[in-house]
Automatic annotation (TrEMBL):
Protein's name according to its UniProt entry: Proteinase inhibitor I42 chagasin domain-containing protein
Spans through the membrane: none
Gene Ontology molecular function terms on file: cysteine-type endopeptidase inhibitor activity
PANTHER family referenced in this protein's UniProt entry, alphabetically: AMOEBIASIN-1, INHIBITOR OF CYSTEINE PEPTIDASE
Source organism of the structure: Mycobacterium decipiens
Keyword list, A-Z: Protease inhibitor, Signal, Thiol protease inhibitor
A Pfam family hit: Inhibitor_I42
Amino acid sequence: MKVRPMVTLVLLVFLAVLGCTSSRAANNAIDVPIDDVLTQSAITRDVTLSVGDTLKVALGSNRTTAYRWTADPKVGDAAILQQTGHEYVRPNTDRMGAPGTEVWLFTALQAGTTTIVTEYSSVVGSDTAPVCTFTAKVTVH
């Protein structure tokens, strides 16, 4: 008979501890599909991070065309945010001409506000004006 109250007490303590833990689902990712890139000349996203967080920026891209995102986006304040990685992720299809995704990783170094800016423009010919400019406004706490 004393086992049941003890199990109940342990379960209640476990649930109380679980409820006190941080349940903040860190959505530290920005995803912009290729359709948005091709139909909007400027895309802006706001994101808030904590020091030490990693931010993933994934922008639709199609390497079968002459258009590319700037490989090294401009970070407004490198003391606040540092780029730690960049890769092109191929599409999950064998379809010819299918778009993929450019993915960058950034690490929040210290509190402050900064921006990330990159442009989608042609890498051939004389008209290299961007067809889309992406800006992330980043606040680090």
